[in-house]
Amino acid sequence: MFADLIRRLTDPGPEPLPDIDARLALGALLVRIARSDGSYTTDEVARIDRILATRYHLSEPEARRLRADCEQLEAEAPDTVRFTRAIKDAVPYEERAAVIEALWDVVLADGQRDDEEDALMRMVAPLLGVSDPDSALARQRVTDRRGR
């Protein structure tokens, strides 16, 4: 189902992705961060659904369908670098900082920071071209919203 998108993600000289493919890349990255600790909780799933619904102005059923597609893409895709490259190419810096914030929101959805999630966040932020200080600020905004 996602063979064409995966081919475009693995192309050595990729063109910027169309909006729907950029949505899938972002959603797959959210799923990948949620699954990185070996536990994919209902809190994380619900958080991903909310992020996708808010970011793309989707109804709850549309967001759930998009997340389900993203889960399948994440399972089939070769590596995280492809998602980040696609997002970096398709999204301006300010919005990439918001992507980092969304990723932190998923990481913190279950109330715990795991070593695997932290390691993936340390890899993803620079791949998206987001500085460490901006990633830390994004994490702090999420923490502050959660009242922790």
From TrEMBL:
Entries under Pfam families matching the protein: TerB
Protein name: Uncharacterized conserved protein, tellurite resistance protein B (TerB) family
Domain Co-chaperone DjlA N-terminal span(s) in chain numbering: 23-140
Entries under SUPFAM superfamilies matching the protein: TerB-like
